[in-house]
Amino acid sequence: MNPMTANTTVINLGPQHPSTHGVLRVILELEGEIVLRAKPDIGFLHRGIEKLSEHSTYHQIIVLTDRLDYLAAMSNNLAYVLTVEKLLSVDIPKRAQYVRVILAELQRIASHLFWLGTHAHDLGAMTPLFYCLREREKILDIFDSVAGSRLTPSFMRIGGLAADIDGSFINRVRLFASDFSGRVDQYETLLTESPIWQARTKGVGTMLKEEYINLGISGPLVRAAGINWDIRKSNPYSSYADFDFAVPQGENGDVYDRYLVRIREMRESARIINQAVDGLPEGKYACFDSPAVFPEKKNVRENIASMIHHFNLVMDGIRPPAGEVYHSIESPRGELGFYIVSDGSPKPLRLKVRPPSFVNLQGLSRMVQGRMLSDAVAIISSIDFVLAEVDR
Question: Mean per-residue pLDDT for 4-12?
Fold first, then answer.
């Protein structure tokens, strides 16, 4: 950033949670209340997950992915195990694929709910936060019932799932999905047509379509700008091609359109969940024929061969063929990808994460330029990033 002139002021926005959604510091140069330049300063929450992965077996890395984006842990699990399965050329049973879709879409809803509540709170509306947390709690309770953990479930496994689901899980998911549309109506009643909400969000934080593409921005941000890009449609994974759902898009790419896109995405996620529950196939919940997959727990207790196999996987890990692989999914924030280089050992030679939060944050400087200081908070919130996924 250039040194300030006599007529400008440089201030720090953050790094405190209420204004910057995590430990983000934004250096703003202001002329009065108009933002001339903005420079995000990251690195306050560096966890070194990529380097830690080089010293962990492929199964051990799953728990690290939870910590990358703690608001969408199931999505992180899914992206990582799909990448390893691509390296191993493992075919996943259809039942496991459908359950993964259910969990990933529940996670998308939970992430968008937390975003919507905190975003509205940033702009002065407190009630939506309580409404959104009400529904998010139900999703976290579902995760707790199936995985034993609410925030960092680590439920996905290389080759399938940690365990099968039961009728109780299906009933809870079905009840949530059938009731959710009415809940979204309540959020929209509070916000969508509100003159104050529209005044704070319409025309704020816009960029040209070419700028989104050149910066590699993805997720709701590009769809709000009218760019039809969703990896679930363009490169279907985990049986997403089996489901009928729309990809919501906006026109103006402003903070208001980003709000509408995420609202509509939650409705579409509920549609996908209903379809997956209704069409859930019978069968195995993991590819137990693969030597890279843990045996069923009941077999470990009853069969010495299964116990030995389980022991070997824990102690020695798996040895994928040497090579490199990349796979990405549509996380709640955009394209989340993992790039793995294998040298045939039990630990990856290199693991690189392509996090949407890190890439999307590049657009902040351009979005706030020429806007008022109060708009900067709305724009930062509308990007919906998680700093654990941003820091390098």
Answer: 81
Q: Is the pTM of this model over 0.85?
A: yes
d(CA 200, CA 256): 8
Per DSSP, the three-state class of 40 is strand
Gap between the Cα atoms of 242 and 270, Å rounded: 15
Contacts of 295 by beta carbon, 8 Å cutoff, 6+ apart: 288, 303, 306, 309, 310
% the chain with pLDDT above 90? 92
Across the chain, mean pLDDT equals 95
* The length of the chain, given as a count of residues: 392
Tell me which amino acid residue 264 is.
R
Taking Cα atoms as reference points, which of 74, 103, 138, 101 lies closest to residue 244?
101
Nearest alpha carbon to residue 59 among 305, 351, 313, 290:
313
How many angstroms separate the Cα of 118 from the Cα of each of 130, 232, 258, 322? 10, 26, 14, 44
Identify the H or E element spanning 354. strand 350-354
Beta bridge partners of 351: 340
User: Is 70 exceeded by the pLDDT of residue 212?
Assistant: yes
Distances (CA, A) of 231 to 236, 310, 341, 385: 6, 34, 23, 19
Give me 340's structure tokens.
């793995």
Strands (E), 14-148: 25-31, 34-41
User: 101-145 pLDDT, tens per residue?
Assistant: 999 999 999 999 999 999 999 999 999 999 999 999 999 999 999
Structure tokens at 19: 């204004």
Domains, the chain, ordered by start: 49-390 (1.10.645.10)
Instruction: Give the DSSP per-residue string, 309-352.
Output: HHHHHHHH---PPSEEEEEEEEETTEEEEEEEEE-SSSS-SEEE
Name the 3-class secondary structure at 248: coil
Q: How far apart are CA 122 and CA 129, in angstroms?
A: 10
Helix (H, G, I), strand (E, B) or coil at 265: helix
Q: Which stretches of 51-157 are assigned E, i.e. beta strand? A: 156-157
